[in-house]
Amino acid sequence: MSTLEPGRPSPEHFLNLIRRQERGRLKVYLGSAAGVGKTYSMLREGQRLKKQGVDVAIGIVETHGRVETAEQLGDLEIIPPVVIEYRGVTLREMDLDGILARRPTVCLVDELAHTNAPGSRHGKRYQDVEELLRVGIHVITTVNIQHLESLYDEVERVTGVKVKERLPDSVLGEADQIVNVDISAEDLLERLNAGKVYPPERAERALENFFTSANLTRLREFTLAEMAHLIDRRTRRTEADRSQASATERVMVGMSSRSPNAPALMRKAARLADRLNAPWYAVYIQTPAEDLTRIDAATQRVLGKNLELAQQLGGIPMTFRGKDVASTISAFAHEYGIKVIIVGKTNQPWHRRLLRGSILEQILNQSEGVDVMVVDV
Length: 377
Hints:
This protein has helices spanning 11-22, 38-51, 67-71, 96-102, 125-134, 152-159, 169-173, 185-193, 200-208, 213-243, 262-276, 297-312, 325-336, 350-356, 359-366; strands at residues 26-31, 56-60, 77-78, 82-86, 89-93, 106-109, 138-144, 177-181, 251-255, 280-286, 316-321, 340-344, 371-375. It has 2 domains: 11-239, Rossmann fold (3-Layer(aba) Sandwich), CATH 3.40.50.300; 251-375, Rossmann fold (3-Layer(aba) Sandwich), CATH 3.40.50. 45% of the residues lie in helices and 18% in strands. By secondary structure, the protein is an alpha/beta fold. The protein is globular and about 65 Å long. The protein has a 6-stranded parallel sheet with strand order 3-2-6-7-1-8, sandwiched between helices. It has a 5-stranded parallel sheet with strand order 11-10-9-12-13, with helices on both faces. Strands 4-5 form a two-stranded antiparallel sheet. The termini are far apart.
């Protein structure tokens, strides 16, 4: 058997290129908030493509009564939505099967983070889009920055709003093209006051809550920072593909069934690993006290949800057994070549820390050559 020559791409690399060729392309219009012009921009592009002879159809669009946006629909074909009755409410959802049967070259899909009605094939619209991409349909879509899963805690801290509809960062990370639809907070507030975003009664509520100048400015900063990061990561990924280099950093976050802030801790880990271009592990530390026979069903469900969230965030969920938390984390770090360990602030009683040293001190003593980060979540 012959070996590959140094620097020559592997067969797996070639297979990935083939798959990317067969897969549809994804373009995302990203904005800092509702009303910045994402849907308008998406429809404008759809019109331009149609004039160039491209087969374009609208999978789903929400104009929210905005006149300027509605005008951009023009003569674009709209694939009729599916009407679903749920608990006495009539819901309109994108007709995934209808789009697959119609098979346009480009499909316009608004509000990527949308949660589908119960009974739909997929729970989230981004999963519908992934199915369209798999069969070779190109998709142009829209999303706001606050819907990124890893930003959930930061958005809540800044705005006081718990964003219910979220999507994994990896969806944005895999996009072939991202366009930032950017306007200043002052211009957006002016649009809101002019009735170009919401009807008067809804605009008034928005101004009192989410749409404050401070909130909009901070969300805009999030968007610009995310765009800068995505551009940088794409550059690094291209360079890595050329050199066939692999990530040298590996990140882990350890958790127990009683970790109160596990989701926030994992979101921090996901963002750090993403910026290091590194794989990361969410490790359930199963000590004798954490044996599944000793924790109740409700706690087990929470643990399961946390491990599922880790997977959604692009992490590798794992269970690792050991006699105590610190030595088990250190053993995992040694076995898997971890370079960064992320832990939250401890709630361990002071008298236990005095007798045995804190878990953090124990990890530091047992994990030579590894960076340990303590985050406040």
